[in-house]
Design goal:
With 216 residues, this protein is an alpha/beta fold. 49% of the residues lie in helices and 16% in strands. The chain has helices at residues 12-19, 23-32, 48-54, 75-89, 111-121, 133-136, 141-150, 167-186, 191-211, and strands spanning 9-11, 38-40, 43-47, 62-69, 95-102, 127-130, 154-157. Strands 5-4-6-7 form a four-stranded parallel sheet, with helices on both faces. The chain has a three-stranded antiparallel sheet with strand order 1-3-2. It starts with 8 loop residues before the first strand and ends in a 5-residue tail after the last helix.
């Protein structure tokens, strides 16, 4: 298989070699609408996606609808995510694959996410859709976006701002971060870790109480 640079734009001579045709043939294909070109000044460039399409290497028209919640008590929210994504993106693709996870957005061992990455690596999907960026991952969204893009898979995000509806999940993820760093500093079995974790829980509980509206 040919190797490409991500989002590369090929000059006509390069594109002709990759496609195994004469430059004049490529110019004729452009006029006939068989291939799209982008003009940069007086020079035409051919997008990598167009070359892949003509070579039959384009990813199939399949979208992964990916949904995630942190706990089993949030299964209703998981189903709502799937329904919203299906309504928004289902009609735009020939086929839909639904993948879900119950686990922290900090976890790197989520089966659904790993399956989506595998499908992308095997070029079996064209896009992956999520309701919010943090449904895909709590941190490092740009890295995952880069990963999927390298295999020709677009990441579709319905709402770009952070999902703040699941406040408890944010608290649990924050505690997981504190515990992880404290464990590296003091050792995971140290009483200091437990003490710090309890202090953070109490502080978050006080903040939650302060944020509640006063009853008349």
């Amino acid at each position: 298989m040919l190797r490409y640079h991500k989002k590369r734009m090929y000059r006509i001579a390069e594109a002709a070699v990759l496609l195994g045709v004469h430059k004049d043939t490529l110019r004729r294909w452009e006029r006939e609408g068989k291939i799209k070109a982008v003009w940069l000044g007086r020079e035409r460039r051919f997008p990598e996606e167009e070359i892949r399409r003509l070579l039959g290497e384009a990813n199939p028209d399949v979208v992964v609808l990916y949904a995630r919640v942190s706990g089993h008590d949030q299964k209703a929210n998981l189903q709502r995510q799937v329904e919203v994504l299906r309504e928004a993106y289902g009609p735009k693709f020939s086929n839909v694959v639904v993948l879900t996870d119950v686990g922290s957005g900090l976890s790197t061992s989520r089966r659904g996410l790993r399956k989506a990455m595998e499908l992308a690596r095997e070029r079996k999907i064209r896009a992956i859709a999520v309701t919010y960026p943090d449904r895909l991952t709590r941190f490092g969204f740009e890295y995952l976006e880069e990963y999927f893009s390298s295999f020709g898979v677009e990441v579709l995000v319905l709402n770009r701002e952070e999902d703040k509806s699941l406040r408890q999940e944010l608290v649990e993820d924050f505690l997981a971060i504190v515990t992880s760093f404290a464990g590296k500093l003091y050792g995971h079995r140290s009483h200091k870790v437990k003490k710090l974790k309890n202090e953070v829980k109490e502080a978050l509980s006080r903040l939650d109480t302060d944020d509640r509206p006063e009853t008349p």
